[in-house]
Write a structure and sequence with these properties.
Blueprint (H helix, E strand, L loop, with lengths): L11 H17 L7 E7 H7 L9 H9 L4 E5 L9 H6 L9 E10 L2 H4 L6 H10 L4 E10 L4 E7 L9 E3 L4 H9 L3
Antiparallel strand pairs: 1-2, 1-3, 3-4, 4-5, 5-6
């Protein structure tokens, strides 16, 4: 007997939309940007708690929130604590129950697997190797998770820097998904 397919989480589409919006927002500022972190809140709940928020949202956002109870609003977090790396920053974050999810945008340099095999073990030499390698690729990752389940990732390369060239899917960056999910525990 086969199991019926499980239906997607009702917030999956809203999360995908929110991560795309975060990625486009960050992309508008250009490359070589710092890590940016966003709280994701259900727009209807935020409006019920803070009615003045309606004055700050575009009419199309308000209309979408009216028809979709899972519509999400991203709230960029200012004044993040200083941290030596992304892992340390995320390990120090926690969110109140009113936050339904979290998203992060970060830039990385990646190499093809064959080139990674030749990377030096010394951290300084590895960094030089990475930055000078002819096959390196600069990418921007935008990853979001909801407190109760789904994740969504968007990946843009500097070489193909166009809105219609952004790769997307629920688990493209599993390590970052796991790290973000831990901030919601």
């Amino acid at each position: 007997m086969t199991q019926p397919p499980t239906s997607p989480h009702p917030g999956q589409r809203a999360l995908a939309d929110a991560v795309r919006e975060v990625e486009h927002h960050v992309a508008a500022a250009g490359w070589d940007a710092p890590v940016r972190v966003f709280a994701l809140v259900r727009t209807q709940s935020a409006l019920a708690t803070e009615p003045g928020l309606a004055d700050q949202l575009a009419p199309d956002v308000l209309a979408a929130a009216t028809t979709d109870p899972w519509h999400l609003t991203s709230v960029e977090q200012e004044g993040l604590p200083s941290a030596p790396d992304l892992e340390t920053l995320l390990a120090g974050l926690s969110w109140p129950d009113a936050v339904d999810g979290v998203a992060v945008s970060v830039e990385r340099v990646v190499l093809p697997p064959a080139a990674e095999a030749d990377m030096p073990q010394d951290p300084d030499a590895a960094l030089r190797y990475l930055l000078e390698h002819p096959d390196r690729a600069d990418v921007r990752l935008a990853v979001g998770v909801l407190r109760d389940g789904p994740s969504w990732c968007a990946v843009r390369s500097r070489e193909h820097d166009a809105d219609d060239q952004v790769g997307q899917g629920p688990d493209l960056v599993p390590g970052l998904v796991t790290a973000l999910r831990s901030t919601l525990d």
